[in-house]
Write a structure and sequence with these properties.
By secondary structure, this protein is mainly α. It has 5 helices and no strands. The longest helix has 29 residues.
């Protein structure tokens, strides 16, 4: 296993989880100021991105499977979070629901491709 890559992937994923859970605290610790308004939502999307990057870069799986897994994770979590924002009705721009629909479709396609890649690897083993 590539230890530096594993450490970097774990660090990015942990930072992502922290941004998802407590974006204000992470922003305060990193930048010295608290985010306000829509910046909290953007911070959470950034956290989802970092978590997905950590998953995609985790060593030990083929690069295609890792990339598909990371992108599928990103799409699913962003779909859920943007849907949550839309249902709450706090920040709803004209492209929010089309973005939710696009991410939902891409998530399904990526998840299907990930399963197909996983099955292909398992079926090719002796």
């Amino acid at each position: 296993m590539n230890k530096p890559l594993a450490f970097a992937a774990l660090a990015e994923a942990a930072t992502g989880v922290a941004l998802i859970v407590a974006p204000s605290l992470v922003t305060q610790l990193l930048l010295g100021t608290y985010p306000s308004g829509v910046a909290v939502g953007v911070g959470r999307v950034a956290g989802i991105s970092l978590l997905s990057l950590g998953i995609a870069c985790w060593p030990g799986k083929g690069p295609i499977r890792s990339a598909l897994g990371g992108m599928a994770t990103y799409g699913l979590l962003v779909t859920i979070y943007l849907s949550y924002l839309g249902i709450r009705g706090e920040w709803v721009g004209p492209f929010l629901w089309p973005a939710v629909a696009l991410h939902a479709v891409l998530s399904l396609l990526l998840t299907r491709a990930w399963f197909c890649a996983r099955n292909a690897v398992e079926n090719s083993r002796p």
